[in-house]
């Protein structure tokens, strides 16, 4: 569109390299929490199939004085130990269901929309969308593309969601004579500082540079948000596993205490 394909390809290569580093860093940060989750699930499975059934044998069939929560844990352990193939098939079916759900475009789009409202993940998604859109708009404007084709080109790279819906109305507003900052302020969640930068860019004729500044700002936010999210995953995984294991251990202790009290 601009006749500067070589320059744009160089900028695109730099952007793709940045995206690759971002995905690599995120995958690396999620490796340890993923390992903790797998190890925790394996430990819980071992407890239910090997440890709990032995406690159930020690306590015996008469569980009248055993607390209800302990009876549930003992029954679950006995069932898991007696039906290992069925439990394995159920887990495999659950994994397959998750894979089907994740690969379904309609469900993924719905989940992506819902994720915008989550505390930490939502900020990551929002920063990612605005950073990519701003960078592509800056690419186009700085290489001589008019504002309407530039916004249309950049919008095509934004995933379907609340931000994309706001951008869908931008072109019509610009054709109707509305300013860039007014349309974006009405239909998107850009901050007041972003809109002020765009107003300054419109008055000075440097809109492309302002979009570049916005992209730099949101890319920095994206890195910070991703670090915050990945730093939370490890303690969350440890906390969930600890709660489950502690709950099972407490249930077994309560069961043994009730049997001891009955004997005494």
Task: Characterize the structure shown.
It is a single chain. This protein has about 260 residues and is mainly alpha-helical. Helix content is about 85%, strand content about 0%. The protein has helices spanning about 5-60, 70-80, 85-105, 105-115, 120-140, 145-155, 160-170, 170-175, 180-185, 190-205, 205-264. The longest helix is centred in the C-terminal third of the chain and has 57 residues, at about 205-264. The model has no long low-confidence stretch (mean pLDDT about 80).
Give the class from helix and strand content and strand pairing: mainly alpha
Radius of gyration of CA atoms, rounded to a whole number: 27 Å
How do the SSEs run, as a string of H and E? HHHHHHHHHHH
Mean pLDDT: 82
**Count of separate DSSP helical elements:** 11
| Beta-strand segment tally | 0
Which percent band covers the strand fraction? under 5%
Uncertain regions: pLDDT < 50 for 5+ in a row?
none
Please summarize the sheet with the most strands.
none
Coarse morphology: elongated
What is the terminal-to-terminal distance? 88 Å
- How much helix is in the residues? over 70%
């Amino acid at each position: 569109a601009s006749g500067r394909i070589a320059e744009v390809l160089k900028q695109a290569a730099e952007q793709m390299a940045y995206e690759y580093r971002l995905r690599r860093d995120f995958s690396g940060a999620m490796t340890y929490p993923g390992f903790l989750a797998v190890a925790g699930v394996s430990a819980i499975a071992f407890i239910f199939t090997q440890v709990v059934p032995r406690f159930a044998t020690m306590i015996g069939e008469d569980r009248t004085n055993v607390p209800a929560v302990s009876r549930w844990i003992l029954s679950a352990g006995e069932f898991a130990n007696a039906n290992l193939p069925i439990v394995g098939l159920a887990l495999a079916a659950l994994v397959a269901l998750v894979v089907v759900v994740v690969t379904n475009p309609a469900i993924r789009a719905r989940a992506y929309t819902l994720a915008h409202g989550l505390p930490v993940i939502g900020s990551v998604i929002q920063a990612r969308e605005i950073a990519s859109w701003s960078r592509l708009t800056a690419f186009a404007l700085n290489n001589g593309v008019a504002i309407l084709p530039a916004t249309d080109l950049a919008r095509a790279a934004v995933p379907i969601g609340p931000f994309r819906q706001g951008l869908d109305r931008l072109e019509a507003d610009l054709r109707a004579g509305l300013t860039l900052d007014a349309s974006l302020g009405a239909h998107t969640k850009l901050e007041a500082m972003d809109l002020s930068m765009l107003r300054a860019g419109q008055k000075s004729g440097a809109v492309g540079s302002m979009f570049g500044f916005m992209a730099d700002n949101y890319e920095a936010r994206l890195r910070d948000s991703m670090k915050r999210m990945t730093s939370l995953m490890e303690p969350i995984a440890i906390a969930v596993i600890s709660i489950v294991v502690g709950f099972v251990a407490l249930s077994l202790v309560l069961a043994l205490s009730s049997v001891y009290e009955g004997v005494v």
